[in-house]
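Standup notes
- DV: blocked on the single-chain target, sequence here:
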Amino acid sequence: MNTSIPTTGFLRLSQVLTIVPISKSAWWAGCKTGRFPKPVKLGPRTTAWKAEDIAALVKQLGEEVRS
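- DV (later): unblocked, structure below
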């Protein structure tokens, strides 16, 4: 399982959930409330998240754990 985050590009939900191990429903709820980054629609049935946004989220979550 490769959990490295690319510096640019997009990540699909399955890739995001390997980095942030929570359920799909918890992820979507967090997106709706603003806790997690907003998705980007790439097509009618394709949703992804900016890699930069996910990297920033991981950094933020790491800082919350340390404090």
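- Follow-up: The chain has a mean pLDDT of 94.
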